[in-house]
Amino acid sequence: MAKLPKKSKKEKTHILTDSQLKKLLAEARREGYDRAYPDAVDLCMALFMWALRVSERYGKKRLTRVMLKSQEISEYVTEKRLSTTDIYLAVEEETGINFMKESQCTSTG
Fold this sequence. Notes:
Radius of gyration: 23 Å
Structural class: mainly alpha
Helix content: 55-70%
C-alpha cells in the first residue's frame, strides 16, 4: 500500500463538496480561457495579416481595413451574435472553400 506524504504542521486540509469543486474548476477554466483567447486571436490575426502582406502585397490601408473588420466580427462571435460555424458555412457557400472538412482548407468546387 502506498504511503501518503507527511503533512507539514502549517498545511491545512480543506474539504470541498462536489458542487464547490465543480465551481472552482469552472472558474479556473474560465480564467484560463480568458487569458488564452486574446493571445490566440492575436496570433491568428498576425498570421493572416502576414499572409495577406506577403502573398497579396496588401499595404497599410487594406491591412487596416481587414484588421478592423476582423475585430468587428470577433466581437459578434464573442457576443454570440455569430458563430464560427456560421462563418464556415457562409465562406463555403460563397467561395466553395470548406474549412470544416478534416480541419483543412479544401476547395469543393
